[in-house]
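Hello Y.,

Per our agreement to keep a running log of every chain we model this quarter, I'm adding this entry. I've kept the format consistent with earlier entries: sequence first, then predicted structure.
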Amino acid sequence: MVRMLLIGALGGDFLAAVRLAKSAGAEVSQVDTIALALPVLRQDAGVGVILCDIGADVAGLIRLMAAERMTTPVIATGRDPSAEQAAAAIRAGARDVLPLPPDADLLTAMLLAASGAPGEPVVRDPAMRAVLRRAEQVAVADASVLITGESGTGKEVLARLIHTRSRRAKGPFIALNCAAIPEALLESEMFGHERGAFSGAIARRTGKFEAANGGTLLLDEISEMDFRMQAKLLRAIQEREIDRVGGSAPVRVNVRILATSNRDLPAECAGGRFREDLYFRLNVVSLRIPPLRERPADIAALADHFAHVYAEANGVAYRALAPDAYRRLAAHPWRGNVRELENIVHRAVLLAAGPEIDAEAIELGTPTANASAGAEPFVGRRMDDVERDLILQTLSHTLGNRTHAATMLGISIRALRNKLKDYVHAGIAVTPPQQAGVAA
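Predicted structure for the entry above:
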């Protein structure tokens, strides 16, 4: 369940947004002002999305959150916001802009995209059914589970399934993407901090461990975690207590740990990049999700599922995939796995012109192959410029999904994030025009 904090007075449009969010499964709390929102965010690290009145100081909210090392995504909202207001909110760091009165499908899509909350597994292939059976078997225990697999295979979906089938199902499920949080912020995000712990820490803030107390904490892409932080995490898991940044006494926690990785962790341990003792602590039970190319029976079922999802999200009639479209999908190697399939079907839903989604609407070419036909020659161009164009074209191809783009480029999400940060500092636009709000 997505937990949303609404910042703004509850007029008719905001009440409608609250009703729609609740009907989409969100748990909603509300405050009138940014000043009242900050204490809530300090005490509740489980808030997954902030919906802020665009008439309030959205940029100021994001600055205050950054000063206190809060990374919760912000969606600006208001009645018929002007293009200038929307652009200013996005430049300030808002994830998206929601016009009021709210559209039900758009609000639902924004909540899911901002929170990263996936749906239930869609499974037909025997290889994936075997993984689900094993997951159901270990769900009732309290042991740590390590879920491995290539990027885009659905590791977080499986983690949420384990939580919902566990004895902790009524407790919180808190997900922390270790690859998406800058190293300087990760410790505070995990463990919280005390007042005065650093410049900007004007009050105590709870972290993800405390937010997950009595429930499950998912450490997504744990192999991207800094080696120093791995030692602190190991102690927290072993001792079942955490130290807030700047704290003087440990805090007891009761949390089940699930972790995911797209890397070969034994190889990472052998290379000195991942602590072997932490690996063994996490790997009580191991679940490997096979890549999509190893479970072909799931391709058609997932494609049909995404065709329904994105027809509804975009307000268009559902159209089935034609047989030639299914055949085209079945022949693809799927380097980006389910996430790549999702993006391709989403694009096909928007591009298809007939009563069905036919093969012509299924765009499968790689960014480099698509770009090479009309691109200027590599000869005579600077290496940095070629690299930049490849990164931005790949990001555009994935509809802004950075995790998928990093997978296709063969680099880590951290390396991609650093490259994009460099481009922003250089004044280069990095937001894909197709769908700016979907970046992961």
